[in-house]
Write a structure and sequence with these properties.
The chain has about 140 residues and is mainly alpha-helical. The chain is about 45% helix and about 0% strand. It is built from five helices and no strands. Helix 2 (about 45-60) packs antiparallel against helix 5, helix 3 (about 60-70) packs antiparallel against helix 4 and helix 4 runs antiparallel to helix 5 (about 105-120). The chain is globular and about 55 Å long. The protein starts with about 35 loop residues before the first helix and ends in a 17-residue tail after the last helix.
Length: about 140
């Protein structure tokens, strides 16, 4: 890497320092890096995600355990390169961690946040909303 900027470039990212339009800029894309347990949370239909959040709130790990079976039913995850059974067992492991650490409140809090992540991933505008029946439809 050259310690000095080249002619016509600024030191901040190689942008031209003069003559650039005021509205031009650099588009920066931020991508969240998820660990394997977090990436294994399935994209479920919104009502199922709300039920899992409810279950996780009152019985730590139960909603996560139920969500593991949605993977076997074809729910998509952020781990496309892993086999369905591997993702299922990752969700079961997350549920067991939540259950076993609920005694010291860590698992209960983790369980609630896990359920909130399920609801966030299952927004009504998500790709799986096409599988939900429309209200008023026969």
């Amino acid at each position: 890497m050259d310690p000095f900027p080249k002619d016509g470039e600024s030191a901040a990212g190689g942008e031209p320092s003069r003559g650039a339009a005021p509205s031009s800029g650099v588009v920066v894309q931020v991508r969240e890096k998820k660990g394997p347990l977090r990436a294994a949370i399935p994209y479920m239909p919104f009502p199922v995600a709300v039920i899992c959040l409810f279950l996780n709130t009152f019985v730590p790990g139960l909603g996560t355990f139920v969500s593991a079976f949605t993977v076997l039913c074809g729910a998509r995850t952020d781990l496309p390169d892993r086999h369905m059974c591997c993702v299922f067992w990752l969700n079961i492991a997350a549920a067991l961690i939540q259950i076993l650490t609920a005694i010291v409140m860590v698992g209960w809090i983790m369980s609630i946040f896990w359920g909130m992540d399920m609801v966030i991933l299952a927004r009504p505008n998500s790709p799986l909303s096409a599988f939900m029946p429309l209200s008023g439809a026969p």
